[in-house]
Design brief:
single chain; mainly beta; six-stranded antiparallel beta sheet; six-stranded parallel beta sheet; 34% strand
């Protein structure tokens, strides 16, 4: 065993001063936390330069571009990590496995100078078996040499900035290079469950496949025991869990000659997983070789739920569902793609929930499994998708497809994932599916690859436009003009229009079609928006959120929407929250009133932010509909009252028996109600006012709220300056 190289004083000091906070096990959904040790913390990093590399301290698992890493170097293409590791002596008789959450992009792993593994793929996990390398109680020097090319165009990198900066640099962010997900050691049995696939789509039990590895996989006895978890509710914190006492269902399987064991566990009294009741089960998988020996145990989390499409609608557990989603890119100002800590990581799910959303689209990023586990426990639906390259070619397409199997293996057990995404807006396909059979074939091939691995979830092969083979027809549409937005959304819903304008550059406006070929079916699949939003200021964005979302809710054909986006990211200021997750000034709008199962839809095309219409001088007559996506029929009355301009709900008597009432309205699930008429007198001699509108049901409960702002309508001041010089 070689000794560690000499450490510079600064590195030695950093190592000795490293915080020793109790880490969270990185795979709570595939739990071996009874025997593990974290390798996160301060490592050495050899940075090339001059005649010899410079050694600096780096905090793992933060990318070397970030402040959190302590390095803060952008466009560093090659570096080597180093630290001492030890296999605990109490792991005698077990197999020690070194696990990496993700390393961007090409990693070579050595222990005491010997190459043990090589991995390509910046977002997928990998592991290294240390059996025969480090015995229990022994120490060694671990090195991870990383290559992270500045030119990322042919490798999956999502929205990391690349050089040359000639593809979509305007919407890209600081790169993420090196180790950016946790690193840890764990103990497994000499013969162990390497992969456990759990599917609960039948709603009455789990289909389980266990791939056994190690000393004697063939003929191994595999026992699967199922118990319900405690704390499976929307208020459960990140550490909630444990199993409830009581009898558990159990099956025994024998691995075949290839080491695979498959079977089904029926649940006597099944409880389903849903956003309203995120009930989870823990499947404890115990593996014992046929020759006997120490058993291997791993606890896998699963849920009984079924997501399916029926014609143009989506159903969860045989009940129709409408997706009210928000796009989340998973960036933090000091730490990039890696959350500062687990509490901060999962807090973004709670922010989305507090804003009224039931789904998060994690945008072109394979997120930390602890985030997905929290979504499982709290009932948040997830649209998951991998990063893509930015230019098309054989190498790029193969690199993209290489992520698909590891993505399904790592994340396929999560009941929260209800949609798989693949390419996004033809990124990695040169924005040209309709004009290129090769690019169209690449999208189809990606779909077929994923479908062969998991046919239990809808798959979107190219999110946004130019669909060639998909289970959902989704579209991305941004428009600052409320009249054009309303008209185009109505035409897309009616099927009389299938294209829309997309600004690909400041001076390049293209028409993009929902369909990438003439023979793609124009009906029969769920259709939904998966990116929208507009406005420069936070007030404008809140205004567009209110009016654009109501137009999506006006059309019963749509199966949902995804607003862009949850938080600001670097130069992108489109978030409902800023980069530090603080709410913005929304002019009195509560996004929960927009993103709830029952909303009001007003027959009005607004003029501009702060002035939906001019202050009326006579009675104002408005048509108001109710869109209801919950169970049962909602009956009630729409009431209206003028309040001072900018007054939020909760002030001005809203909810009291004040204001003008409409006739009774009845809203059936997933059917826009007929319009009822609300007639209100003018607000009086005021410069501006706000009209609160709210639905009171027959039981007296307020079920929906919106408002209309009245103020002077002025033409935009766009006078140019004359230059005579």
């Amino acid at each position: 065993m070689t000794s560690a190289p000499p450490q510079p004083d600064a590195v030695r000091a950093a190592l000795s001063a490293a915080p020793q906070a109790a880490p969270a096990y990185p795979r709570p959904d595939l739990d071996r936390s009874h025997r593990w040790t974290s390798l996160d913390g301060v490592w050495e990093l050899d940075v090339p330069g001059g005649a010899a590399p410079t050694t600096v301290p780096i905090t793992v698992p933060f990318a070397w571009e970030t402040a959190a890493s302590g390095v803060g170097r952008t466009w560093l293409e090659h570096a080597t990590y180093r630290r001492r590791i030890a296999v605990p002596a109490e792991w005698a008789g077990a197999r020690a496995v070194l696990c990496f959450g993700a390393v961007h992009h090409h990693a070579v792993v050595r222990v005491d100078g010997a190459v043990l593994a090589e991995h390509v793929g910046g977002s997928t996990p990998f592991e290294v078996d240390l059996d025969g390398v480090l015995a229990p109680g022994a120490e060694g020097v671990l090195e991870v040499e990383v290559h992270a090319p500045a030119d990322k165009r042919a490798i999956p990198h999502g929205k990391q900035r690349s050089i040359p900066r000639d593809d979509y640099d305007g919407v890209s962010f600081t790169p993420t290079s090196g180790i950016w997900q946790p690193v840890w050691l764990e103990a497994r049995g000499r013969t162990y469950a390497a992969r456990v696939t759990v599917r609960g789509e039948s709603l009455t039990g789990f289909d389980v496949t266990v791939d056994v590895a190690g000393d004697a996989p063939a003929g191994a006895l595999v026992t699967v025991e199922v118990a319900a978890t405690a704390g499976s509710d929307p208020g459960a914190g990140p550490g909630a869990g444990g199993t409830t006492p009581g009898a558990a269902e159990r099956i025994e399987l024998v691995a075949d000659s290839t080491g695979t064991a498959s079977g089904r566990v029926e649940i006597a009294e099944p409880r389903l997983w849903s956003p309203a009741g995120p009930h989870l089960y823990v499947l404890t998988v115990t593996t014992v070789p046929a020759t006997g020996g120490e058993p291997d145990r791993v606890a896998v989390t699963g849920g009984l739920r079924r997501i399916e499409r029926r014609g143009e609608h989506l159903y969860l557990n045989d009940e129709r569902i409408y997706l009210r989603g928000v796009l989340d890119q998973g960036y933090w100002p000091e730490s990039g793609l890696t959350a500062p800590d687990v509490d901060t990581l999962v807090a973004d799910l709670e922010h989305a929930r507090a804003l009224g959303y039931n789904l998060v689209r994690k945008h072109i990023k394979l997120e930390d499994p602890r985030w997905l586990h929290h979504a499982d426990r709290t009932g948040m639906l997830v649209w998951a998708e991998p990063p893509a390259p930015s230019r098309f070619g054989t190498e790029a397409a193969q690199a993209f497809e290489a992520q698909i199997a590891p993505m399904v293996e790592r994340d396929g057990n999560h009941p929260s994932i209800v949609v798989w995404g693949l390419y996004n807006e033809e990124w990695g396909l040169d924005w040209d599916i309709p004009g290129s059979p090769d690019r169209a074939d690449a999208a189809v091939r990606a779909y077929e690859t994923l479908h062969a691995l998991d046919d239990t979830r809808p798959i979107v092969e190219n999110s946004g436009w130019a669909h060639v083979r998909t289970d959902l027809v989704d579209w991305h549409y941004y428009d600052e003009d409320p009249a054009a937005w309303a008209a185009n959304v109505a035409a897309l819903a009616a099927g009389t229009r299938e294209d829309f304008p997309v600004r690909l550059a400041p001076d390049f406006l293209a028409k993009k079609s929902l369909y990438g070929s003439a023979d793609h079916p124009r009906s029969g699949l769920p259709i939904l928006n998966s990116e929208y939003g507009a406005g420069f200021t936070s007030l404008e964005r809140a205004w567009h959120l209110r009016w654009q979302t109501q137009e999506l809710r006006r059309h019963d054909r749509f199966a949902g929407y995804v607003y862009t986006e949850l938080t600001d990211v670097e130069h992108e200021m489109a978030g409902l929250l800023d980069v530090d997750r603080r709410p913005k000034d929304r002019g009195g709008l509560d996004p929960r009133d927009v993103n709830t199962e029952t909303v009001l839809v007003v027959d009005l095309v607004p003029v501009h932010a702060g002035a939906d219409l001019a202050v009326p001088k006579a009675d104002l007559v408005l048509g108001v509909h109710v869109s209801h996506h919950g169970p049962g029929v909602v009956r009630g009355q729409v009431r209206a009252a003028w309040v001072p301009a900018g007054t939020p709900f909760g002030e001005g008597g809203v909810g009291e028996p004040l204001g003008t009432g409409s006739e009774t309205v009845e809203a059936k699930p997933f059917e826009l109600s007929p319009a009822v008429t609300v007639t209100v007198p003018p607000p009086g001699p005021v410069t501006a006012a706000r009209l609160h509108l709210w639905l009171v049901d027959d039981g007296g409960a307020v079920r929906a709220r919106t408002f209309v702002d009245a103020a002077p309508i002025e033409e935009p001041n766009r006078r140019g300056l004359r230059w005579d010089g």
